[in-house]
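Retro notes, item 3 of 5
We never archived the inputs for the flavin-adenine dinucleotide complex last cycle. Fixing that now. Sequence and ligand:
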Amino acid sequence: MGLSFELAPEQEEFRRVVADFADREIAPVAAEFNAQGRFPVEIVRRMGELGLFGLPFGSDYGGMDGDYLTLCLAIEEIGRVDQSLGITLEAGVGLGAAPIDEFGTEEQKQRWLPQLLRGERLGAFGLTESGGGSDAFGATRTRAVRDGDDWVIDGGKQFITNAGTELTSVVTVTAWTGEQQMTSIIVPVDTPGFSVAPPYHKVGWHASDTRELHFDGVRVPVSNTLGEQGAGFRQFLKTLDDGRIAISALAVGLIQGCIEECVRYAREREAFGRPIGSYQAIAFKIADLEVAAQTARQMYRYACWRKMEGLPYKREASIAKLYSSEAAVTAAREATQIFGGMGFTTETRVGRFYQDAKVLEIGEGTSEVQRLLISRDLGL
Ligand SMILES: Cc1cc2nc3c(=O)[nH]c(=O)nc-3n(C[C@H](O)[C@H](O)[C@H](O)COP(=O)(O)OP(=O)(O)OC[C@H]3O[C@@H](n4cnc5c(N)ncnc54)[C@H](O)[C@@H]3O)c2cc1C
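Structure as it came back at the time:
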């Protein structure tokens, strides 16, 4: 068999549809939502109508029968224009719907997936607690105690994406259900005792929803256990492996957005009587952005391909996430430099990206955690 780097015609077709949607419907309003720190409900609904939240899932529960690469292409294209909506999609699919699709019982899938896959409602996954996210196992304090046919949950989570939007219907949370036994439990957000704090004042991702969660005697039926009791640790490790590929795609979107903006600006903007792009100090920075975008894109696509082929992909997912997120931080800094003073305003896409890029090195496993995973995989 030969080696092919081409997208299948249907993948390329869908990528174009999403790119066009992002340029027409998101780009003109992204600065405004960002400035207001407002979650763009109307656009998320439109993304749902396009089928983006159902992309990698089967049609049995309302999915699009697409593949994981097509999801990543969509995340890249949305993220190229707006990182807040890119993470809303990534988390809605990867953290909200995917764990229920992958580990849930038939009844749970039928109850929750259709609304999540159509993007009418959003789901979230609460793993991180105030005691620490890198050591998510050791730092978990949330407990679920059995009382008859119910779990009674007490504790809290922090930094949970999509947990408090008006579309959110469900949060899956990890909790101790015994000695060294972690279980994921599905919590409908209207359950008494469940509450969310006001949104954080974040450095970036201003139009995405991130909340602290509180569980005060939250009572849900034991049938809300995601898959098997005690499988929580394994479930979140798998969820994070997939999420890292998708975060890499989001980072590539950011780098590509920087390239587009910088090429345009460097042709238009003049200094000392010449377009700034005619100075190699500027042109070479943009050449480096292109190198980073192409390299990072191949990395996430390779990890995706391994996942879709049923090959091990943990290491490749970490490599793609680590490289792409660090490259995105560099790209945003260099693009901002090319824009000069305008780059330091959030009216420009590169200015917003400068704020948004940093968290790519933190969420779904920090850069240090990725290096830890890669070095362990090498036997260290
Ligand atoms: C905007 C945003 C959205 C998020 N969304 C979600 C979500 O939807 N669901 C969810 O569960 N979580 C979410 N998170 C949490 C995120 O996954 C954690 O912030 C992340 O895993 C890091 O955990 P921490 O913040 O507790 O840092 P810590 O774990 O306290 O780490 C602090 C520092 O120590 C370093 N460090 C830790 N251990 C080691 C080690 N062994 N070796 C070297 N260095 C180490 C870290 O790399 C980091 O630099 C989100 C976070 C943010 C900011």
